Amino acid sequence: MSIQRKAEVGMFLSSRSMSVILCVAVLFVSTVRAPPNVAILSIWCGPIPMALQSPVSNAIFRVVEDLKENTSRHNNNYWTRKTYVGLNGERRCFGQATCNVQPYLWAQDCLECLRVAKVQIILRCQFKISAWVQLQDCYMRFGCETP
Prior knowledge:
By secondary structure, this protein is α+β, with helices and mostly antiparallel strands. The chain has helices at residues 3-31, 55-70, 107-124, and strands spanning 40-45, 77-86, 89-99, 130-135, 138-144. The longest helix is centred in the N-terminal third of the chain and has 29 residues, at 3-31. It is elongated.
């Protein structure tokens, strides 16, 4: 084999090796992710209290659980509504949750961020019929018509 041919083969192998290394590096970088950033940016608790184990508190629980479980399944932006029977007939509770799309949160990261949002609302807005929390990587809000 001529020297020129050996050089061409060597360059082909080294460029092929570099391509393989580059592909592996891209796959590695694209699959490595940081956990969601759950730093609290803001939180608001409504002024109207509710009774624990009441129809409205049960409806809020269903709304918040629905948001937590389904937001990542709906392109990281989900609305829901549940009804309950109040003193003046049927009433509605609603909720919305979002997870960051830039950078995109993976489904399990969205779920984890919304789990933290739910805990923060429970801890800071105990027994209120409306609240919202904005974390760095997700947002959750809910509210109910007054009983």
